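Technical annex B. To support the medicinal chemistry partners, we prepared a structural model of the target in complex with nicotinamide-adenine-dinucleotide, based solely on the information shown next.
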Amino acid sequence: MSLYKDIIEKKEAIAVIGLGYVGLPIAESFAQKVRVIGFDTNKKKIELYKKGIDLTNEIGDDTIKNTKIEFTSDEDKLEEAKFFIIAVPTPINLDKTPDLSPVIDATKILGTKIKEGSIVVYESTVYPGVTEDICIPILEEESKLRCGNDFKVGYSPERINPGDKVHRLENIKKIVSGTDEEALEEITNIYTLIIKAGVFPVSSIKVAEAAKVVENSQRDINIAFMNELAIVFDYMGIDTNEVIEAMNTKWNALNFRPGLVGGHCIGVDPYYFI
Ligand SMILES: NC(=O)c1ccc[n+]([C@@H]2O[C@H](COP(=O)([O-])OP(=O)(O)OC[C@H]3O[C@@H](n4cnc5c(N)ncnc54)[C@H](O)[C@@H]3O)[C@@H](O)[C@H]2O)c1
C-alpha cells in the first residue's frame, strides 16, 4: 500500500493547512498534478482566493482564477484528505519567545481529522523538537491513534523567498524527514512530484528542523555583523562598500552586505533557535 500511488491515481487527496506565502504556492504546485484541498481559518482570505485574487502575489491572479485547489475554511473538508501539509505562521511573542499557538491550533484541528494511513508534514519554521515533542502528542491525543503504527509524521522546511522570481519552490532543493523509513519514502516520493531540484532526505525530524533555523540564523547574524562594521567604518571615515568589494576578492569571503534583513522570517527565526 502506497499513499503516493493513491495520490497520483487521485484516489486520495493532499490538504494544505495555512494558505499564505508558503502554503499557497505549494498547494498550487501540487494541484497541477493531484487533488488538493486548500484550508485556511481566515474566511476572508479564502473568499478572495475563490474570487481569483492572490493576496500573496506568489502565484498571481491569472493562476488563482484557473486553479484546481479546492479552497475551504470548513474543517470537515479535511476528512477528504490523507496527506497533510501544515504551513501556518510561527511568530514570536512580545518577550521574543516562540508563539506556537497557530501550529498547536492547526494540529488540534488535524488531530480530529486524520485516520489510519495518514501522513502529516510540518513546513512551518520551528526549533528542533517541536514536531516530535509538541505536535505528535497532540495528534495522538486528539485522534486516539498512535504515531508510527496508525499514522506518520514528517518535517520539510520551506525555503522560498517571497517575491523572488528566480528561486522558486520548484527549483529549490527541499529537505525532507520522517518518523521512520516508510514515512520518509512516501514524503520523498510525494514532494518529488513538484520539486524539480530534488529532495534532500535527512535521518531525523530534528535535523530537518535545525537545518532551517540555522540557515536563517546564519544569514541574520552575518548581516548584523556587516551592519556593525558599517557603523564602525562610518565613525572611522572608511567607505564600507569599498572595504567589502576589496574583501570579496578573497575566494572564501562570504559576500554579505549591510542593510535591512529581508522577509518576516530572518529576523524571527533566530529566536526559535535560541
Ligand atoms: N514567508 C516566507 O518567506 C517563509 C519562507 C520560509 C518559511 N516560512 C515559514 O512558513 C510558515 C508560514 O509562513 P507564511 O509566510 O506562509 O505565513 P502567512 O502568514 O503568509 O500564512 C499563514 C496562513 O496560515 C493561516 N492560519 C493561521 N492559523 C491557522 C490554523 N490554525 N489553521 C489553518 N490556517 C491557519 C493564516 O490565516 C495564513 O493565511 C512560517 O512558519 C514561516 O516562518 C516562511
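Notes passed to the chemistry partners:
The radius of gyration is 20 Å.
Residues 154 and 178 are 4 Å apart (CA to CA).
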